[in-house]
Structure formats: C-alpha cells, structure tokens
Amino acid sequence: MQVSTKFSDGFTFSGPAPERMNGRLAMVSFVAALAVELSKGQDVFAQLSNGGIPLFLGTSILLSVASLIPLLKGVTVESKSKGLMTSDAEVWNGRLAMLGLVALAFTEYVTGGTLV
C-alpha cells in the first residue's frame, strides 16, 4: 500500500509520523531509563543532568530519520504488520511507554528517589 511521500503530509496532525515516532522514542527512553536506574541507581532527573540530554537528542534524531525513510518511500507500517508485530500493537505499546515514562518521572519527583 502506498501513501503520500510528501514530507508535510506525513507530519499532519493525523499523519503517520508523529505518534509513531514519539511512541518509538518513548519505548526506547522508558527501557533505557529503567536500565540505567537499575545499573547505576540514578533517577530520570539525574540521568538527564549527568549528560543524558545529548544522548536523548542523538537518539531522537536517529529514530526520526529511521522512521521517515520508509515513510518517504511510500511504504506504510500497516503493510509490514505480521503476527504479533502489528501496527496497532506498536501504537499501543508506544502510548503505554509514554504514560510509563511520565509516571516514572512523576513518581521519582514525588518520592525524591529512584523507583527501583
């Protein structure tokens, strides 16, 4: 299935790029935040203040470009969905990761320490 390959069409409010890219970034960020917390004992805010912002920006750029390449070639995510790895599952996992990351940061802020 082909979609519009115009850059501006991909980034409209209901376009294919915004939620997928944010969801993918949230999934990577949530897992990375928990991994660093478990290995180094740093909460999310400490991770950001100890050099995490350049790493976050670099990861954001890399995931954005990797997500845009197929989109700009006209390939839909739905056309690549198979078995458990469906486009709907990716959207829901991304949404849950967004909520999880916010909940993690909020809980750590309120408690004043790491979650794990």
Description of the molecule:
- This protein is an all-alpha fold and 116 residues long.
- The protein has helices spanning 7-10, 18-40, 44-72, 87-111.
- It has one domain.
- Helix 2 (18-40) runs antiparallel to helix 3 and helix 2 packs across helix 4.
- The longest helix has 29 residues, at 44-72.
- The termini are far apart.
- Pfam families: Chloroa_b-bind.
- The chain crosses the membrane at residues 51-72, 92-110.
- It is found in: Membrane; Plastid, Chloroplast.
Topology:
Blueprint: H1 7-10, H2 18-40, H3 44-72, H4 87-111
Helix pairs in contact: 2-3, 2-4
Largest sheet: none
Q: Spans with pLDDT under 50 lasting ≥5 residues?
A: none
Tell me the number of structural domains: 1
- Globular, elongated, flat, extended or rod-shaped: what is the shape? elongated
Mean pLDDT: 82
**What's the count of strands?**
0
| Terminal Cα span | 44 Å
Question: Strand percentage, roughly?
Answer: under 5%
Oligomer state of the chains in this structure? single chain
Order of helices and strands: HHHH
